[in-house]
């Protein structure tokens, strides 16, 4: 497939400090004009100095998990007011602005029981995209069989299924499905090709990387659809992720320097940087295009499972087996804060779309923090 995806970018740009003089009014006499000119020269508009950001615990401990291996998204609503937590057969909607439980959804599908929700992502303010497994019962025969991965949408206001029920990878042989909210596609890998499907439109296509002959257990698309990163490639002798340029479908470089298995990769929203989280306990930040190592961030005690840039590009959050979330400056790599509320190893972390909240998840518990300062 020769198509290169160009989704809309919603990277936020930091406000610039503005210094300017101003003067208004029409002055008739010379004396009045002179007095106004003096005032004009002395008055400036200056923004208040920015305070250092601090994140504080918001929800306590909520039973459930974020998407874990099925999505890179933290399941925030588009306006950052809600967080969707998958908890067995339920989706718990937490109100981040009040810190309260807003609603508990229990999705159900005809003739399917024991639904186990794998991930929940917002497609719109009242629309969830769910991935789940269940047990299918054959009428009149009393037989039951596990379902393949199911994909469907759920209306959070009316608490009902919206649209069709889709089966993902029913023929088998695919690597685990992953949803990439920034490009809007669900992806599955098999035999040198990635099948891409858009749950909003039902459209999709196939992307073939002819040089990829082994399964890549970890992969990440850039938000602009120009790059594909591949890691955990079976039978590969190196831990370093490989870079594919999608316009040519060819390997062009690698992210060098890893001393252990790479557990996650994430692009900044402006497509200028990549951060990797590694089993060796370090984060590494690379520039996109020339793929140079810019920073190596150390501090976690043990493997780091996930790292992500904030949408505004100012911070990096990382989650590790040492039960901490660490927040770093994306500009110079300095450690800003260590969040230590978790009692279990943390496997995922994400920023809200407005960069105000951080959510992190172990296998069974979700925590959230709210930023104060640094506006």
What does this structure look like?
This protein is mainly beta and 375 residues long. It folds into three domains: 70-168; 174-254; 258-375, YVTN repeat-like/Quinoprotein amine dehydrogenase (Methylamine Dehydrogenase, Chain H). The chain is built from one helix and 29 strands. The protein has one helix at residues 30-42; strands spanning 54-57, 62-63, 82-87, 90-95, 100-105, 112-124, 127-138, 143-146, 149-155, 160-168, 178-180, 185-190, 193-197, 204-208, 216-221, 227-233, 242-245, 250-254, 262-267, 273-278, 283-287, 293-297, 304-309, 315-320, 325-329, 335-339, 348-351, 357-361, 365-372. Strands 1, 2, 27, 28 and 29 form a five-stranded antiparallel sheet that branches. The longest helix is centred in the first third of the chain and has 13 residues, at 30-42. The protein starts with 29 loop residues before the first helix and ends with a strand.
Helix residue percentage: under 10%
What does the main sheet amount to? 5 strands, antiparallel
**What is the name of the CATH topology of the largest domain?**
Methylamine Dehydrogenase, Chain H
CATH superfamily membership of the largest domain, which one? YVTN repeat-like/Quinoprotein amine dehydrogenase
Radius of gyration: 24 Å
* Whole-number mean pLDDT: 85
Q: Count of helices?
A: 1
Determine and state the CATH class of the largest domain: Mainly Beta
Oligomer kind: single chain
Order of helices and strands: HEEEEEEEEEEEEEEEEEEEEEEEEEEEEE
């Amino acid at each position: 497939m020769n198509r290169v995806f160009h989704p809309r970018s919603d990277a936020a740009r930091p406000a610039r400090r503005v210094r300017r003089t101003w003067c208004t009014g029409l002055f008739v006499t010379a004396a009045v004009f002179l007095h106004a000119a003096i005032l004009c020269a002395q008055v400036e508009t200056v923004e208040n100095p920015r305070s250092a950001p601090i994140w504080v615990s918001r929800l306590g401990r909520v039973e459930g998990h974020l998407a874990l291996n099925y999505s890179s998204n933290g399941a925030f609503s588009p306006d950052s007011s809600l967080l969707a937590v998958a908890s067995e057969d339920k989706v718990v909607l937490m109100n981040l602005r009040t810190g309260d439980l807003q609603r508990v959804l229990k999705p159900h599908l005809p003739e399917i029981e024991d639904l186990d929700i794998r991930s929940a992502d917002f497609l719109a303010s009242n629309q969830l995209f769910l991935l789940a497994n269940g047990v299918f019962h054959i009428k009149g025969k009393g037989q039951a069989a596990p379902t393949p991965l199911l994909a469907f949408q759920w209306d959070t206001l009316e608490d009902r299924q919206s649209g069709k029920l889709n089966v993902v990878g029913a023929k088998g042989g695919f690597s685990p499905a992953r949803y990439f909210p920034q490009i809007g596609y669900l992806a599955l890998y098999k035999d040198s090709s990635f099948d891409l499907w858009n749950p909003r439109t039902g459209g999709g296509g196939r992307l073939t990387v002819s040089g990829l002959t082994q399964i890549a257990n970890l992969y990440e698309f850039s938000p602009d659809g120009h790059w594909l990163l591949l890691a955990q490639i079976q039978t590969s002798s190196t831990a370093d992720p490989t870079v594919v340029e999608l316009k040519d479908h060819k390997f062009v470089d690698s992210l060098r320097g890893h001393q252990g298995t790479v557990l996650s990769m994430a692009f900044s929203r402006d497509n200028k940087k990549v951060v990797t989280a590694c089993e060796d306990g370090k984060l590494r930040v690379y520039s996109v295009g020339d793929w140079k190592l810019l920073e190596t961030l150390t501090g976690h005690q043990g493997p780091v499972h996930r790292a992500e840039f904030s949408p505004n590009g100012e911070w990096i959050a990382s989650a590790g087996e040492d039960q901490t979330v660490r927040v770093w400056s994306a500009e110079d790599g300095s450690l800003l804060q260590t969040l230590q509320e978790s009692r279990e190893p943390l496997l995922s972390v994400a920023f809200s779309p407005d960069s105000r909240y951080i959510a992190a998840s172990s296998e069974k518990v979700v925590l959230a923090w709210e930023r104060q300062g640094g506006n």
